[in-house]
Amino acid sequence: MRDLSMHVLDIAQNSVKAHAKTVSISFTVDERDRLTIVFTDDGDGMAPQLLAHVTDPFTTTRTTRKVGLGIPLLLENAERTGGGVTIQSALGAGTTLTAVFDLRHIDCPSMGNMCDTLLTLVLLNPQTPAFVFTARGRGLEADFDTREVQRALDGVPLNNPDVIQWMRDAIEEEFKPILEV
Amino acid sequence: MKSIAELEAIRQKTLERVAYRKDADSDIRVVVGMATCGIAAGARPVMLAFMDEIRKRNLQNVTVSQTGCIGMCRLEPMVDVIVPGQGKVTYVKLNPNMVPRIVTEHIVNGNPVLEYSIGASEDQ
What we know:
The structure holds two protein chains of two kinds.
Chain A: H1 4-17, E1 22-29, E2 34-41, H2 48-53, H3 70-80, E3 84-89, E4 95-102, H4 114-124, E5 130-137, E6 140-145, H5 146-153, H6 161-179
Parallel strand pairs in A: 1-5
Antiparallel strand pairs in A: 1-2, 2-4, 3-4, 5-6
Helix pairs in contact in A: 1-4, 4-6
Chain B: H1 5-17, E1 28-33, H2 36-41, H3 43-56, E2 62-67, E3 79-83, E4 87-91, H4 99-108, H5 118-123
Parallel strand pairs in B: 1-2
Antiparallel strand pairs in B: 1-3, 3-4
């Protein structure tokens, strides 16, 4: 993966595939420029056997090939910066994945266009799951909740072109100052 | 969040248009491969380029959706364009610069851009 925004798009797809109804992604940048990304979903969750092997590149739920690289690539990039990845999950209880990156580390991938990633997740999944994005850091706070947008739209789909533009502006206005510096 | 009131205006505008909208079965479908392989190869800017182009041209009968890995990761980013009654065309190794031509020639005018298709790519 070229940058952190690609990882976020990729990891969040796991929640979508696990039939999550709500996916929340929170970003926290602390005063030492350590970025913590927490993915929380209420999807299927993983049995202990799968959880134990989920960082193994030869583990995947897909049927077309025998490799699954999403989590192993994330783990490698996080550990190279002195950070790491932890996963908590149980069948029926959803999954929480936490990834920590040291943004000042020379081996840390660039942030990439995180706003495009967040928008893409919503556009590709206009009905379910609901997405809740939050970001905290640099003295700023950003929040975006697709359920609030859907409530205001009352039936107009989230992938309506005018709605897309509105969401793009909303996400960029709030999240860019925290995530793309 | 940004002003929710603006969404109300968008909703009103859309509801006025909805009467002209045909049923969704006749929609042209654009399906983007969005597994790890597709994302790593650059599927996100390709998907957003389709969204932008569709918005610019105000196309009402096109839906963009995603699929997983279909096993040909070396050809990503891949996109299927499915026109009802005309079958499916699979485009491979796309970048955002190639998208406007696909939208203009294939989606609007009905002529697939064969040089971007999987058939042309695999013949080389």
